[in-house]
Amino acid sequence: MYDIILAFITSFALTYLAIPSIIHVAIKKNLMDEPDERRSHKVSTPSLGGIGIFAGMLFSIIMWTPFEYFGDLQYILCAFIIIFLIGAKDDIDPISPSKKFMGQLFAAGILVFRANIRLTSLYGFFGLYEIPYIVSIALSIFTILVIINSFNLIDGINGLSGSIGLLISTVLGTWFYFVDSIELSIVAFALAGALVAFLKYNISPARIFMGDTGSLLLGLVCSILAIKFIELHNELSLSPYTFQSAPAVAIAILILPLFDTLRVFILRLMQGKSPFHPDRKHIHHVLIDLGLSHMQATGLLLMVNLLFIILAVQLQHIGNLLLLITVLAIAFILSLIAGRMAELKKHKA
Predict the structure, then answer these.
(1) Which element (helix H / strand E) includes 33?
(2) DSSP secondary-structure letter at 29?
(3) Where are the domains of the chain?
(4) What are 187-202's pLDDT values in tens digits?
(5) How many CA atoms lie within 13 Å of 320's alpha carbon, on the beta-carbon side?
């Protein structure tokens, strides 16, 4: 327990102390995120906050993870470094999407093949349980890539990615502590500590953004925590802390980034555009168009995500497929209502 608390405090302190220097250097070297018609900010803002998050989290994990728990953590740290380098390069000197994707694929491969972070079953979805090794590898890499990029896509307004990441890492980190997975709990709370410090500088008016360095790293950590959350249920059948319908509960925990990504991809395809075509169709853009401030939209989306987690825990007994359908149906209805309200407001204006 003390290691986990110390990991949180250490990560918070390092990130909190590092970010002012990062802001100073970014302004001095003109490493800024410039406003345009797609972005929600109005002034040039440094976008290297992810460097502070990475430094605080990495130091804290190495410092406080007991050696006997280290296990495959060395491979996880290697994946962190790969993602950090990709994100930092893209924030300083933008790289092509294909190169960014190859780097993400490399990091995901390290996690799947070396750290053995992979999904081994469909857990009763469509009546299927154990899956072949090759299918397991493909599904796991796909899952990691989707979660990484979903956090990258929701990082569009002040405080949103950091707040959602803080919620997810705190919820999963607490669960890992209760099931004695100390090393994963330390990873989760090291991230949480760094995010609390970062949010001090990211709430409106934001002094710094996390950039791709932060959002890609945040997505990577959450993908690891989500997959391990699902997989550990295979070993904890007698534990009082297990959940029925663990995969659907995991999706509910990550509902905002996952559903928003699915939503904008479908909308873009329906309009004949590439799913990766940038626009202002994200749910946070809809809320901003409704007249909410950045922090009001962030607070609302954070509460909605929390309510989905509570709902999934309460309905875990209904089974994976039915719980997933329920969660997605409610998310669809809520987003439809918000979208319709934004359209009405636009027409009235």
Answers:
(1) strand 32-33
(2) T
(3) 2-348
(4) 999 999 999 999 999 9
(5) 16
